[in-house]
Amino acid sequence: MTTALSNTLPTLLDLAKMQGRDGSLLPVVEAMTKQSPFLRALPWQECNDGSSHKMVTRTALPTLVWRKLNQGVPASKGRTDPVKETTGQLAGRSEVDVDLVRNPKNGPAFRASEDAAFTASFKNDLESAFFYSSQKTDPDQVHGLAPRLDAKSGAAYGNQVITSQVTGSGDDNTSAWFVNFGPKRVYGLYPEGMPTGLQMDDRGKIDVDDADGNPYPAWVTDFRWTCGFAVEDYRYVVRLASIDSGDLAKTGKLLIEDFVIAYHQVQDWEGTGAIFVNRLLSTYLHLQALDTVKNSTLTIRDIGGTPVVHFLNIPIYVTDALLNTEADIA
């Protein structure tokens, strides 16, 4: 079993190095991966059809029979369904009036600070998008995990959604996500022939228009990230859903039992496993593990020089993108 930092597909930082970008890009990529646990764990793959990615998913196996002598065998076949994942582009633009950066002592630092704010914004929006963005409501976005696993009954992959024992009613719920990344499983996408990661285009000093349409000189930086998200095999994703954030308790073992059930619902953990929770859920999981003296499911291991809590040897990453305001899932 490998950790979420040793992917068989290239990581964001690997791809940035392979692209031969100038030195200004690498610090941005490093900052993104350090701040975002999902981006740090997510492997990336180039689309095989321009800006989209075609896959074929096997949905049924051939039927077999126990044959007797002198008895024929009926023909049968499996079933495969074509699936297409698409990419979208998240973009931003920084405009800084030239007079704000004329001072050689602090001018460049101010512009760099403004650009750094965009880096943080991309981190927040992308991390949230990989969980919650839905092409059902906006086809220009990536298609995240939550809209794929948003129901149990009547859903194609409803068995990959597990209702927590800490369940209530209303819209004060959260989810924990159990994901095994890798080829043929779950991975990020970038368009064919294009670089991946956050791209920064320093446009230099150009004229821009104010609110009245009057031009003024400004230093301009364009930011863009073109990416997508593929779930090729849903057996490697489990959503532990409907965890009522208002009913979480420091004592007991309901959360730990929930995690054990979700852990075993993943097809297997050979590869790059990760569990994603928000800060509140991480806290109560740890408290319940302390309360349950005999429990040994939680351990702390070092990943890249940082101590990370593990559940049954799968790293648990805390992300602020996961909300406490999810609706109950039926």
Task: Give the secondary structure arrangement, pairings included.
Layout lengths: L11 H7 L6 H11 L1 H5 L2 E3 L5 E9 L18 E19 L9 H26 L28 E3 L9 E9 L4 E5 L8 E11 L5 E17 L5 E8 L9 H12 L6 E6 L1 H13 L6 E6 L2 E6 L2 E5 L12
Parallel strand pairs: 1-6, 4-9, 10-13
Antiparallel strand pairs: 2-3, 3-8, 5-9, 5-10, 6-8, 7-8, 11-12, 12-13
Structure in a nutshell:
This protein is an alpha+beta fold and 330 residues long. Helix content is 22%, strand content 32%.
Kindly list the characteristics that best describe this protein.
alpha+beta; seven-stranded mixed β-sheet; 330 residues
Mean pLDDT: 85
SSE order, as H and E?
A: HHHEEEHEEEEEEHEHEEE
Poorly predicted tracts of residues:
1-10, 18-27
CA-atom Rg in angstroms: 23 Å
User: Helix count, per DSSP?
Assistant: 6
**How would a textbook summarize the main sheet?**
7 strands, mixed
Tell me the structural class: alpha+beta
Using the alpha-carbon principal axes, give the shape.
globular
Please give the domain count: 1
Strand order of the largest sheet: 4-9-5-10-13-12-11
